[in-house]
Amino acid sequence: MSxxxxxxxxxxxxxxxxxxxxxxxxxxxxxxxxxxDREMDADHNRSVITIVGEREAIQEAAIRGVGKAAELIDLxxxxxxxxxxxxxxxxxxxxxxxxxxxxxxxxxxHVGAEIWKRCQVPVYLYExxxxxxxxxxxxxxxxxxFEGIRDEIATVAARKPDFGDPRIHPTAGATVxxxxxxxxxxxxxxxxxxxxxxxxxxxxxxxxxxGLRFVKAAGFLVRGLAQVSMNLTDFxxxxxxxxxxxxxxxxxxxxxxxxxxxxxxxxxxxALEQAAEWYLQAENFDSSLIxxxxxxxxxxxxxxxGGLRAGVEPFIEQLAAPTAxxxxxxxAAASGAMAAGLAFMVASMSRGKKAYVQYETPLSEAIxxxxxxxxxxxxxxDADAEAFNLLMQAYKAAKQSEDCGVxxxxxxxxxxxxxxxxxxxxxxQIADRLQAITxxxxxxxxxxxxxxARAAVEGARANxxxxxxxxxxxxxxxxxxxxxxxRLRALEDVPS
Length: 496
Prior knowledge:
Elements: E1 5-8, E2 11-12, H1 18-27, E3 33-41, E4 46-53, H2 55-72, E5 88-97, H3 101-119, E6 123-127, H4 138-142, H5 145-152, E7 175-179, E8 184-190, H6 195-205, E9 215-222, E10 225-232, H7 240-253, E11 258-264, H8 269-280, H9 291-298, H10 309-320, H11 328-350, H12 360-398, H13 406-434, H14 443-474, H15 480-489
């Protein structure tokens, strides 16, 4: 990616039809733009897409996304808990690296003009890009939603758009485009279905009615529970933990408790660091105590997010070195560990999501089992090399003594890859079962996990076989030979 990075987080008024959201995301896939996250919420009937990219490319991606949404989404039949005024409801640009907020304001104005020109969707500018103080506030622009704007845009001067004629698109409504700092979309679920409680708490917490600075809030009924839905517009000045505690305190006034919370989209690491410091009450805590932060500091960022080579490259170079270890057995174990890691990630990202709440128990069981298997396979990377080295020492000792432990060393050299094969087969089976109960957008990760697990099984089986052949020569009566072969035969039905 370029050193000049801009984030764009368009919100679309569709959270139930995955095919429509897929088409919108696909329209935004252009060179120089990268998809970071996508969230669909059926209750709000809304999707939040997070993309990042170069200045020119991300503007074009946003325009194309709005155009595709205008083609596919009909607000005259749209229903959902979240307020909306457009098929592409809001399109904010956020400076990340090498750009300023002023740059993003210019981008918002360019994009707004192009949306009207290409799509005939009128555009309002908000936040830092707003042309009047009132329009800095999204709620002010969106009051009355699609229907209210449709009725007033031609007759009320305050409703005149910044770009386009004073008429809405008949099905796509109007779009709000702007520039702002990073925003955290944060929701808290309460132990009651009484949405009036959520609305009272939202009124207490939001800044516009006397609450916390940099907090916008509303109350909704979501998944049968009252939800306080919030946008934190400056987490550095109003941190996420302070917001949660405020909601918790207000909820207690009505005899209810927060039962869970959720982050929609992405969250900066610093926000979580703040929460960790506050809740742990660690006297000496600061961000430099976090391992990854310290590694990034001393390695010039190579261990930061995205610097993945720094972790895996040494092992790859060891495999390439002209030495016997690490070899195929260690590589098989590493492949299995990666498979377990991928499957763990997919299960973790689906567990707790509304669309997969009915699979909470099997997902939790899969996550727990995959964690154990991943640890076993990681340990086997070194264990395989150590077993080989011990076998070489035993063969060397055999030249001086008959009682040299070759049989025991062979047994260990076969046992480690045998355990790898069994663990990797279990990973493949779990990953295969996860395909039906996890986000289908992550199916490629599970396909990769299964392929890696199969490679681990095949590589480990080969290592077991070669050691069993040696045992057949040096210790033909060892019962381990038949036991190991029986265990290998049980691994023939690995998912593919």
